[in-house]
């Protein structure tokens, strides 16, 4: 069984929480793209884990892998390993592996990322983690891989070949190259390489061998579908492919092995950084979503922009990923809002659109068309099954399911493990929103 989990919006949908919930049903959990610009927050009891590169399945005892589609920051990876060990989660070659083909995020990538963003007239809102420049070097065949970091002779030879051009570029952009790649930094990286040596594996072989043996594998994505480097809201996107098909490439697994794909979708929508967000709310409702939902970036701490649920964007994500099921998170955050709006379409230049326009510049001009539903005032954080939800919360969930035409399998009502429940097969189908026909 091979399951792929991706975010269905702009990231921050709660993927880490859902992966953590389901991971004990899987033998392997593998990360397939992105870098330490991603942030997955998982709450276990009183402990809060913020993971950026290591799959959150490690917290429930699953073996975890980092695939070759990931770009790896060795310094932040060691910080994560140390943090986990301090909390009693010890990584060994039996429960953790990194593909030797992973590209390494070098200090000059981070410098170039920062200088590039500063020089832009139209800011992207990058995390300045060097991700784009690491992926760029991979495409240019100028990358340094984990396998290189394990061999001092090879690593130093590659640095000698690559660094002069990087140094010159940094100087031209107003940076100070002499502080970026010192002998001290090189020595520190080589020392980390030796610590990671026993974790280097061929992830493709490990996963395919496991699947052939009848084991269960989960592929975990970072960021969200709408930040995909090709299909997202260019240029306000991440630097890798975030959709389900990327899991096959980033892990080296053929598409015929995919069993199902799950999309994680928030009960509203958020976005960090710049780019279009048609339903964005800058009023008291937006403030409610930020404060109650604690909408601040795991990686950067930046406040997330918040808006009403956007169905047209979800439809696009469903097409791009081929979702077989959805997990709906943070419905508890909507408590106290009345009425609640769902964006069911857009208006652009006088024309109604049920699907996002092709061009980002056109999406920026789209005006949401809302349908209104009654809200609820009941606290949902102690709810543990669909039947115990208030009627209007049930209607909201079932309406999203009906409109998306994809089954909602899980619902989350808070950050803790026990605040996510599985939807029963015998859900109350008959209460599909009579009030939903009221369009504003």
UniProtKB/TrEMBL annotation:
NCBIfam families: PRK01117.1, purA. Mg(2+) binds at residues 12, 39. The active site is at 12 (proton acceptor), 40 (proton donor). The lineage of its organism: Archaea, Methanobacteriati, Methanobacteriota, Stenosarchaea group, Methanomicrobia. Homodimer. Keywords: Cytoplasm, GTP-binding, Ligase, Magnesium, Metal-binding, Nucleotide-binding, Purine biosynthesis. The keyword Amino-acid biosynthesis does not apply. Coiled coil: none annotated. This is Adenylosuccinate synthetase. Its cofactor is Mg(2+). It comes from Methanolapillus ohkumae. It catalyses: IMP + L-aspartate + GTP = N(6)-(1,2-dicarboxyethyl)-AMP + GDP + phosphate + 2 H(+). PANTHER family: ADENYLOSUCCINATE SYNTHETASE. It is found in: Cytoplasm. Its main location: cytoplasm. Belongs to the adenylosuccinate synthetase family. Its EC number is 6.3.4.4. Pathway: Purine metabolism; AMP biosynthesis via de novo pathway; AMP from IMP: step 1/2. GO terms for molecular function: adenylosuccinate synthase activity; GTP binding; magnesium ion binding. Substrate binds at residues 298-304. IMP binds at residues 12-15, 37-40, 127, 141, 223, 238, 302.
